[in-house]
Amino acid sequence: MIEKRLIDSCRNGEHKGFKECYETCAPYVFSIIKNYISRQEDRKDVMQEVFANVFHAIHKYDENKASFKTWLSRITLNQTITYLKKTEKLKQFEALENDFDVSIENEDLDVEKLNTSVLDRLIKMMPQGYRTIFLLSFVEGYSHKEISQILEISPQTSRSQLSRGLKWLKVHYKKSS
Hints:
By secondary structure, the chain is mostly helical. It is built from 9 helices and no strands. It folds into 2 domains: 4-86, Rna Polymerase Sigma Factor, Chain: A; 92-176, Winged helix-like DNA-binding domain superfamily/Winged helix DNA-binding domain (Arc Repressor Mutant, subunit A). α1 crosses α2 (15-36), α3 packs across α4 and α8 (144-151) crosses α9.
């Protein structure tokens, strides 16, 4: 994703390095943020915070512990979740807990077999709580225990929200097919 010389340039405080790093990494960072945050203005704010954090902490990056892409992903995800918590977009978990009760067949939803463009559109339409946990679980690969720590909720709430999110997705996917 990014060359060591560019990381060193940023570590040395070189403006050209910061600019090149931003231009190289911005599309990737934006692709993560847009999954979690709907409003364009909010996405820009989070992007700005992500890169401020990256450039402030670049001297702490250790290529022996993780790739730059992994490190950048973690900063992006942390900043995105921080934004959602700060703006109270994640306060919906408990409220949604009993809000959506759908009877559904016992067959499982195989997310990997769904039409990608339809799935992307539906994910953007999901209630924020469902969407956040769905993305953390399916895209980022976090366990319910890890999600509960990130979002400061119980693992049971994480499981429940994912289950309800999958039900929501299944119902809406069937309607759009």
